[in-house]
Design brief:
Blueprint lengths: L18 H6 L29 E6 L7 E6 L5 H7 L2 E4 L11 E4 L25 E7 L7 E2 L14 E7 L14 H4 L22 H10 L1 E2 L3 E2 L9 H15 L3 H12 L1 H5 L10 H13 L12 H7 L27 H13 L6 H8 L23 H14 L3 H14 L17 H14 L2 H14 L17 H12 L41 H9 L4 E2 L3 E5 L4 E2 L1 H14 L3 H12 L10 H5 L8 H13 L12 H7 L25 H13 L7 H9 L19 H13 L6 H13 L7 E3 L2 E3 H11 L7 H13 L19 H11 L39 E3 L20 H4 L26
Length: 924
């Protein structure tokens, strides 16, 4: 989920940023231009069926067109499906055809490719708000998933449907999904997709701290809310205040006082008829959520087992059974729930407490869904008249998404919310109303954020920001001048980018005085205290990474099998994994020598071409990554590959934002062409390791300023408002390296957030789902305080063990296509050691570079050759002349690592913390 600092994105919910693309802004232009690739003759769309072939849909909406479909009855890759589906493509000068920069079809505007050269030169990877992103859906899948693999690595199955959408999203692909559904474009479908853009409204952010101060001011004695003219506490509004304070300020004395008061009121509020009777379900659920949000025990809150009592009092029948139970309108109701929000909160309280809600209780929520996808606020009986509203729909949609197994209902609710949003960005209190409601807009914004529609959510938050009153509070309805807690509470959550499903109040941990780690020295101390077997088999992992079929000539990993183009970022990832384990120092020496001595790939490119150092496109993240590698192997980053990378980084620090069409500098203190938090962190890391803290002051401050109130960092720069495991781990390791204790609290807060993201099986969410890459990086981050987070690290290592294959490599994610992937394997291997690459070193004295294998020839230098509509149409018929080069490029790899990992590269080393003992382990 996002945070309070949501950046308004005019492009709206359908304009997606390819997570592959997000990373690749770090490329420099250095090779001959690659001509656009033409399509093969497309198979007629009707030839594709649910059991034969696959469909690809390309949305040309941002360019005045519609959604165009294509078919390939025998697709070999997602890239081939796009080509054989009747589309033309063009790559970038830096990456070649493997990175799709433009797409065209003869079915739209005579085959013109978009974006046009007037708006995108396709030299470097396009800007972070304007990419072609890649989405997939298998047969029966009702919603889109970000592809965990690049189009050249993914093999579509029979009945699959792919989508290419232009715009922006966060690096994890958790936002900005296609606005049309897979069923609307898959084989046998073709219905006209609905509108794809959110309202175009001025940007705006809620002043969350001001709202929290107003909420605090409503508390009598700092503990509870009392209605005007009354003396008894209003327990309902007190829970609202608790949620708002948790979202705005986290755990602290003020929230503790409110929570303690609620605990003391449990009997009066949740058990008005006595403890022998059924609890008031909404009250019990609200108190249970307050306990869960503040990391208390809902099974012992105020002396009551709230979860046990909720589950025990689910209605077995309704009035139609002949002997109705008082307080029950239908089977599955929580006794006394009365309204849909009470039913939903009770389900959520059980889910958050680790208790499986009764199937009937979840089913009951689905019975409240109207034909238009909305959810009614009243617990109607099945068959009764149904008229929903945005507020109830937003709450129930987030709960059903968390419950799982209700994709169709959630998708219908999402479609309803998109249609219900007013042009102002607000949501009305009821269907047919023409003015906005603060509470309805807040709950709808929370749901849309959770469902990936950040453009619409941003528009809703922008409207809310304009409704915020001078004192920080919010009125009930549009234009209201009297603040109300009922409206302000949910508005705070929307402004903080959280909802009741994800909200956790974390307490900052005390920190000890830090010490400055050595920039160089002997071999990195190994922090693991776990016995052999506690983590993956690292020797097998290294064997996989160094096998000749993967590590070309023992020197680099290929990004293009046909031309021998190197993926320099991935090559450094592998080098970090080698350095972290120490299992093949000769292989590490070979890679380091190749990069430092100007070794050329199959296209004649060197490390210097990849970093852009000294040129027009000097990529801060790439220079930082190369410099850190030099420091790891104890080489001089001021003369590595013929470049002074440290001086290059100092020169790459932006003094102010650049203006279009120059997109080199997003902000003062950023690095040029460093499009992500990961890339930026690499630059800071290199400068600090080189002792250049003074020169890095502005980049350090900029990085620190990107942290959300939750403790997380976003994926991209400029920030998109999302929160990402990978970037948070990387930023924490970077700030942990900065001398002094200025950033100690920020690092601790980041680690607490990382721990809160761990999934039940030990994995961590990433762009590809339950991601190996994210788990490895989370281990690095949590190992900064290995003693405290030993349990989470151990679980993560067990997860990584479960994803290691017989060949020693690792899957991209728990879900999706099986098989070992080099990038995921490099991160898993390095991550499992628990060594921060901020302190990682490997002494290569006495090592010998491996010779070029006799069976391989020397690298060969190759210069590559040079009707609008709103409905879904088909791309039948031949396109332009020319064949699509078969590059075999992985389109910059997996979803989990693409954004800011490929060309900027994800460092695949892991974390120790300079001031604490570390303890992640793996079998060495």
């Amino acid at each position: 989920m996002g945070t309070a600092q949501q950046q308004h994105r005019h492009v709206g919910k359908k304009r997606l940023l390819s997570l592959v693309s997000a990373a690749a802004v770090t490329f420099a232009a250095s090779v001959a231009f690659v001509a656009g690739a033409g399509p093969a003759v497309a198979d007629p769309v009707e030839k594709c069926t649910a059991t034969r072939g696959a469909i690809v849909a390309v949305d040309f909406g941002p360019f005045g067109g519609g959604v165009v479909r294509g078919c390939d009855t025998t697709p070999t890759t997602g890239y081939q499906l796009l080509r054989d589906g009747g589309f033309t493509t063009e790559g970038t000068r830096h990456d070649g055809d493997g990175f799709i920069c433009r797409i065209g079809t003869r079915s739209f505007n005579s085959g013109k490719q978009y974006p046009t050269p007037a708006t995108e030169d396709c030299v470097l990877t396009p800007q972070a708000t304007a990419y072609w992103s890649y989405w997939i859906a298998s047969p029966g899948q009702k919603t889109w998933s970000y592809s965990p693999l690049g189009a050249m690595s993914r093999t579509p199955g029979a009945g699959d449907v792919d989508a290419w959408v232009f715009g922006g999203t966060d690096v994890g692909g958790s936002t900005g999904r296609p606005a049309f559904t897979p069923d609307e474009v898959r084989a046998g479908g073709g219905a006209t997709p609905g509108p794809t853009d959110g309202p175009g409204v001025p940007a705006g952010e809620i002043d969350v701290p001001a709202a929290a101060r107003w909420v605090s001011g409503q508390l009598r004695d700092g503990t509870h809310v009392v209605d005007e003219g009354a003396e008894a506490p209003n327990d309902f509004l007190t829970t609202e205040a608790a949620y708002a304070l948790a979202a705005a300020n986290g755990k602290g004395p003020a929230l503790d006082k409110v929570t303690a008061h609620l605990a003391g009121r449990t009997g009066a509020y949740a058990y008005p008829n006595g403890t022998d009777a059924a609890p008031d379900a909404p009250a019990a659920a609200r108190l249970a959520l307050a306990a869960e949000i503040t990391e208390g025990d809902p099974r012992d809150f105020g002396g009551h087992d709230l979860l046990g009592d909720l589950r025990k009092h689910v209605c077995p029948t309704g009035p139609d059974a002949g002997s109705p139970t008082p307080g029950c309108t239908a089977k599955g109701d929580f006794n006394g729930a009365t309204y849909a929000d009470g039913q939903a909160l009770a389900v959520l309280a059980l889910l958050r407490g680790g208790v499986e809600p009764p199937v009937e209780a979840v089913t009951r929520l689905t019975q409240l869904v109207c034909q238009d996808g909305s959810v009614t606020s009243i617990l109607i009986r099945p068959g009764e008249h149904c008229d929903g509203d945005p507020m109830t729909t937003g709450l129930v949609a987030t709960v059903l998404k968390e419950a799982g197994g209700q994709d169709a209902v959630v998708a219908g609710a999402r479609t309803y919310l998109r249609k219900a949003q007013l042009d102002s960005g607000a949501f009305p209190p009821a269907n047919g109303a023409t003015t906005g409601s603060v509470a309805a807009t807040a709950y709808a914004a929370q749901a849309l954020r959770a469902l990936g529609d950040d453009g619409a959510a941003d528009a809703a938050v922008a409207w809310l920001s304009r409704e915020q009153l001078d004192g920080g509070g919010f009125g009930l309805d549009e234009g209201a001048t009297d603040p109300a807690l009922y409206a302000t509470g949910p508005a705070v959550l929307a402004g903080a980018g959280v909802d009741l499903v994800t909200l956790v109040a974390k307490a900052p941990e005390p920190t000890g005085p830090p010490t400055t780690p050595p920039a160089t020295g002997g071999p990195t101390p190994r922090p693991t205290t776990r016995p052999p077997g506690a983590g993956p088999d690292l020797k097998k992992g290294i064997a996989y990474l160094t096998r000749p079929s993967n590590l070309h000539q023992g020197r680099y990993y290929k990004g293009d099998e046909k031309t021998g183009r190197a993926d320099f970022g991935l090559t450094i990832d592998g080098a970090f994994a080698l350095a972290a384990t120490g299992h093949d120092d000769n292989a590490l020496r070979t890679i380091a020598d190749f990069l430092e001595q100007g070794g050329k790939d199959g296209e004649g490119r060197t490390l210097d071409d990849w970093t852009g150092a000294g040129g027009t496109y000097a990529l801060g993240g790439s220079m930082g990554k190369a410099a850190v590698l030099a420091q790891v192997v104890e080489r001089d980053p001021r003369d590595f590959g013929g470049r002074d990378l440290i001086a290059g980084l100092a020169e790459a620090v932006c003094e102010k934002p650049s203006t279009a069409p120059n997109r080199s500098c997003p902000a003062a203190g950023a690095y040029t062409y460093a499009p992500s938090v990961f890339a930026h962190s690499l630059g800071v890391m290199a400068q600090v390791r080189a002792g250049e803290e003074k020169a890095a002051e502005a980049p350090i401050a900029y990085l620190a300023g990107l942290q959300h109130a939750s403790g997380a960092w976003p994926s991209l720069i400029p920030a998109t408002g999302d929160s990402e495991v990978d970037s948070t781990a990387m930023a924490a390791m970077t700030l942990d390296l900065v001398p002094g204790d200025t950033h100690a609290a920020a690092v601790d807060k980041a680690l607490a957030w990382l721990a809160s993201q761990q999934l039940a099986d030990g994995g961590f969410p990433g762009a590809s789902g339950n991601s190996v890459n994210s788990a490895g990086l989370a281990v690095q981050g949590l190992s900064l305080d290995a003693e405290k987070y030993d349990r989470q690290i151990t679980k993560a290592l067990k997860f990584l063990v479960s994803q290691q294959n017989k060949d020693g490599g690792f899957n991209v994610a728990k879900e999706g296509q099986r098989g070992s992937d080099i990038r995921a394997s490099a991160q898993a291997v390095g991550g499992s050691t628990g060594i921060s690459f901020g302190t990682l070193t490997r002494d290569l004295e006495g090592t010998t570079p491996n010779p070029v294998p006799s069976s391989s020839s020397a690298p060969v230098i190759v210069t590559p050759g040079d009707g609008a509509g709103d409905g879904a149409v088909n791309a039948g018929g031949p396109g332009g002349a020319g064949g699509l080069a078969s590059t075999g490029v992985q389109v910059l790899g997996l979803a989990a690592t693409a954004a800011a990992l490929v060309l900027v590269g994800r460092l695949t080393v892991v974390a120790t913390r300079r001031r604490r003992t570390a303890g992640a382990g793996g079998e060495r």
